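Hallway conversation turned thread

IA: we were arguing at lunch whether anyone had actually written out NAD(P)-dependent dehydrogenase (Short-subunit alcohol dehydrogenase family) end to end. Turns out nobody had. So, for the record, here is the sequence (269 residues) and right after it the structure tokens. Reply here if something looks off.
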Amino acid sequence: MHMGSEIGGTSAAECAILERRMTGHVALITGGGSGIGRATALRMAAEGADGIVIAGRRVTDGEAVAAECRSLGAKARYVQTDVTREEDVARAVQTAVGEFGRLTVAFNNAGVQERRAPLEAQRMETYKTVFDSNVGSVFLCLKHQIDAMLQEGGGRIVVNASVSGIRNPNPGLSLYSASKAAVISLVRSAAMENAPRGIRINAVAPGRVLTDMMLASGIADMASVAAGLPLRRMGQPHEVAEAVIWLASDASSYIVGHILSADGGFLAS
């Protein structure tokens, strides 16, 4: 759901006093056409990003977000991207470098969730789709983003994981949970490998956040789910975007290989 005159949950008037944490940065956001990806793109634009590449499958949504970013004063470009295809990922990275001169920030946000069902009812084709989309895509993105960032002497990468990769709260979504656990391991390994080379890699682990994926998850009573969280409410995409921006900014300069849970207290409960 788009928020009209609001920018990732922040009113247009308030944007004038936002920190400019993204000034000087060129960012690539996968899955940037909706939800957490869109909220992050708009926040980056509002905070002074020099250039933003929105990568995703849905052309209409991606073009709309790029236009919203431009309305906030940022240069922005949408690139139709299937993150399971290496040529598409490479093209998105090359677009950032070719059009904006460099790539310094990436948010690898794209992912999918299987239809809720017991493990024994899942099919091998579904397993491949979930792992290609959630784990294989992160590998491909890291591979090409790291290469581009090394040319600039460093950068910051944030990956969207999930609390499901730490503690599975979703019976019937075992493949999604397993894929996110793999993502967390991949992030930590990549972070240790690349920190000495000037690239900081971290992840956010959202909990119950009102996105298209959550709304399509098959949960019948969202109110009961929200009531079971310590904050007694679901999260909003812009609240996760704030965590992403922090990890991508100088404010987190000593944070490496960290999984930041934006979960309303779920893991602590």
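OS: looked through it. The beta strands are 6-7, 10-11, 26-30, 51-56, 75-80, 105-108, 155-160, 199-206, 259-262.
IA: good, adding that to the notes. The longest strand covers residues 199-206.
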